[in-house]
Design brief:
The protein is an all-beta fold. It has 2 domains: 53 residues, no CATH class; 108 residues, Jelly Rolls (Sandwich). The chain is 2% helix and 46% strand.
Length: 182
Amino acid sequence: MTALSEDALLIPEKKPYAHYSMTLSRGKAENCMITGQFAGIVCYTDSTGHDGMDCPKGKGFHMPKFLNKCSIIRAAGNKPKIIEEYVGQVNSHTDAVSIARMKSPSGWIEPGQTPEFDEYTIVLRGMLRVETKNDVTDIRTGQAIITPKGEWVRYGTPEDDGAEYISVCVPAFSPAIVHRDE
């Protein structure tokens, strides 16, 4: 396997379908197979079988990136909750923001957390209970709440029908920066 520098990605004689280590905008990618290049954009398949398009770190990515499916993420809490991540570190390798649809059952509650991200939440169906150190707020269908980074918060869905909601985290959600209570 050949180590490939950022500038080398732009050299046309690099052979498609050869394996390289690359530094892309999302970080280091090991054992990638380049499947094509155009105008500095690299199409690749990484060692996990993930297909992607990116460009060398610092070069910018200026074209739409179609995401044809979400990734299901394991949720914290006392009952199974479905997290469908559309944009974020897992599904789109995006660090700046994450966007996910949550489907929480009746009686679900997660451990408290003090995240290093702002979270913007819109309830699509049901009621989401948001508890902070100073308040408890019930967010219902069509309502939204913003929880700032650095503030302790706990989410739950105590009503019979649970809830469905969209969560947007800036920067993207990551287990390393959520800081859950133990």
